[in-house]
Write a structure and sequence with these properties.
The chain is of the alpha+beta class. It has one domain: Immunoglobulins (Immunoglobulin-like). The strands form 3 sheets. Strands 4, 5, 7, 10 and 11 form a 5-stranded antiparallel sheet that branches. The radius of gyration is 22 Å and the shape is elongated. The N and C termini lie far apart (about 75 Å). About 15% of the residues have low confidence.
């Protein structure tokens, strides 16, 4: 019985060691995105940059478009990025108003993650700050 317990303890230690190694190798990737506007129909569009780690950091990311205003900023719309990291929010944007995007963080495979990202605000339709 003692030998059986010893083997069980070694097996459990091996499982803990493997789990610790998997967590220790987890990586957090930065996120960035380009974005701008088109008119008729009005839309904000952009692409999560390719230097943002693996494809998992570009594909399927939730992107939210906000309009800057006094007090709480207004959520205008949202989209999920495609396999190339491209996203588009088609809404009635208001001339002269400033908009920005937030890309939410994402966790994938074995504790790897992609950081969230918030762009600077751009004025519609010129795209200037």
């Amino acid at each position: 019985m003692t030998m059986h317990r010893t083997l069980l303890v070694f097996a459990m230690a091996a499982v803990v060691a493997l789990a610790t190694a998997a967590v220790a190798s987890a990586t957090t990737y930065s996120t960035s995105s380009s974005f701008g506007f088109v008119q008729h129909p009005d839309a904000a569009l952009g692409q999560i940059n390719f230097n943002t780690g693996p494809g998992a950091c570009r594909q399927g990311r939730k992107v939210k478009l906000f309009r800057k205003r006094h007090g709480r900023d207004a959520l205008v719309g949202s989209d999920r990025s495609d396999s190339a990291g491209q996203w588009e929010v088609n809404e009635n944007l208001r001339d002269g108003k400033r908009y920005y995007v937030k890309i939410l963080s994402k966790t994938f495979g074995y504790g790897n993650s992609c950081r969230s990202y918030t762009s600077s605000a751009l004025r519609f339709p010129s795209g200037t700050a």
